[in-house]
Structures are given as structure tokens and as C-alpha cells.
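Changelog note: in this version the structure field was regenerated for every chain. One regenerated record is shown below for reference.
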Amino acid sequence: STQSTGDQLLSSSEGENYERLVGSGGNQSNLLAAVSYLAKKHLKPFTYYTTRVSEKLRKNPHGNYATALALGTQIVEVEALSNLDLPSNPKALVIPFGASCPEVSWGVSILAEELIHYIDSTFPFESKVSIVLPSGTGATSFYLNKHLSVYRNITVYTVPVAGDLTSEFNRLGSISHVAGRPTVLDSKKRYRFATPHSDLKKIYCLFKNRGIEFDLIYAPKVWKVVLENWDLFKHSELIYIHTGGVEGNITLLERYDNCDLS
């Protein structure tokens, strides 16, 4: 959704007014890679603020960090991202942390249209459809629910991976005047964001051994929650929205190898 939204905006007459892009987040963020591609495509410099990069990653760039560097992104290291005061410039398009902003709705509307086309051409007319996706900031699931809420046979479920979604959903609802929310499901056990855990590695391996590689940060928790709540889904057509991030698996797998999960 970030790429679709950004491509629409930067291709518009409004987008021509922006001379550069500015963003912030983790050094293996999906947003980092997605916006780096957009900046390269539209020939605009991109400055990205992140916390300190490890010496190991600096010497051996890989994943989304390496992709961004190869595409010419300027990465600026800061002590902390909380309360980061990004440079104010009317000629700069500032992309908020996690791309959590109303503009994301543009790109998500394209995703919604693609889903409706797929559902209409694949499943019987009266089929009940469950769409499941992870949430970081929750922007994608929030706006996907907005665009699909008019279809009575479709339910959007989301699993929070980075923290509680209540305040962010309320904020997005307030600024976009949308009352509806996706159905939030969470795991019985709590997992720290982007932290190795044997439960999540087992889910990752379960799919990898069947020829499907998901990212290690978002997908494993979602599928664990789906399996824990299988009664909700067993009588519906289940669609999982993979939000990317496989490029970062190299880093996470190294962390798994270097920690004791017993």
C-alpha cells in the first residue's frame, strides 16, 4: 500500500512539487525499501532516519538496509526515534512512522479492488470470506476494512504485532471520519515485537517446509493466532495478506542462531 499510495501521489501534479522524500523507522523496515524504490523511480532524493546501525550490519549490509543503500537512500542515524523532529520543508514529502496517515487510503483502495476482483472470480457468490493481515501501526488494516465494509460477506481481521491498536485506530478514525474498525484478534501469549521466540520460529518453519516463505516478524504471530482461533475461519474462505519483509529474514535468522530459545 505504501508503494501504491506513493506512486499515485508522486505521479500527480501535487507530487511534482516535492523535491525530496523524508521518513523514519527501523533499519530493516519494509517502508525503508518501498520508499527507496519510489524515490529512485521518481528521481527524488530520500533521507531516512533510523536508530544506530550495528557495526556488523554496517560492514555487511543486507536485507532492506542494503536495498536502500543500493538505491541511493541517505540513511541518518539518531539516538532515538521517539519525539524525532523531522526537518520541516514544504518541498519535502514527509512519510510518518509506519506510513500511518490518511493518504495510505489511496493505495489500500487499489488492494481492495484487487481483492474484490479475486473473490468474485474465484469463490461462489454467497461465500463467506475472511481476510487476515498483520498490523504494525494498523493503517493498512484500518483502511482495508473501510473499503471492504460495504460487502456483507467479507470480514477483515487483523493481528497486532507491534502493540495495542486502540489509540491508533481512534486517531485514524478521527482524522478520516471513519467509524468502522477491523476485527482485532490477539494471541493468548504475549510476544515482544521483532524478538526471536521458539513459537514463532516453529510457525515459520512449518510453512517454509511446505515451500512457502513468510517474513519472520509479522506472519508467524498472525498464523499462530489463526490456528488458535480456527473455529472462526473453518467455514469461510481465508485470504492472508502478506505485507512483505522476507528480505529481512537473513538478519532475523542470524539472531535466532545466536540466541538460546530453550
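Spot check on this record: The first strand starts at residue 20 and ends at 24. Residues 104-122 form the longest helix (19 residues).
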